[in-house]
Amino acid sequence: MKRYCFALDLKDDPALIEEYKRYHTLEHIWPTVLERVRGNGVLSEEIYLTGDRMFMILETTDDFSLEAKMAADSQSPEMHEWETLMWKFQKPLLHAKPGEKWVRMEKIFDVKFTTP
């Protein structure tokens, strides 16, 4: 299994943040978005929010290709429509490349503890 972590900011507007959170409930997220994510080797996706900063964690199959998923998503009209809608709420990180949304994070610490 592979793990990818990303960061992105939301616009600092409490009403927009609440609306964004509503879109990300199982009752309101578009079924086609869930199908596209699941169909590309993603085993789980979690998004965490603090203030206006978000972190997304993807756990994937070992043969998952982030580049292939991004290419497939860019060809999907449904994903394009979803991402266009999400830009209403999102703002890029200061160090993001032009047009880049979720910025992949660098792992800088990893420790595993064993039970005595």
Task: Quote the CATH topology.
Answer: Alpha-Beta Plaits
CATH class: Alpha Beta
Quaternary status? single chain
Category from helices, strands and their pairing: alpha+beta
Along the chain, the helix and strand elements come as EHHEEHHEE
Radius of gyration: 15 Å
> What do the pLDDT scores average to?
94
Uncertain stretches of 5 or more adjacent residues = none
| Alpha carbon gap, first and last residue | 26 Å
Features:
26% strand, 32% helix, alpha+beta, 5-stranded antiparallel sheet, 116 residues, globular, Alpha-Beta Plaits
Task: Detail the topology: elements first, then pairings.
Layout: E1 2-10, H1 14-23, H2 31-38, E2 42-50, E3 53-60, H3 66-74, H4 77-86, E4 90-91, E5 103-104
Antiparallel strand pairs: 1-3, 1-4, 1-5, 2-3
In words, what does this structure look like?
The chain is α+β, with helices and mostly antiparallel strands and 116 residues long. The chain has a single domain, classed as Alpha-Beta Plaits. Helices cover 32% and strands 26% of the residues. Strands 1, 2, 3, 4 and 5 form a five-stranded antiparallel beta sheet that branches. A hairpin with a 2-residue loop joins strand 2 and strand 3. The chain starts with a strand and ends in a 12-residue tail after the last strand. The mean pLDDT is 94.
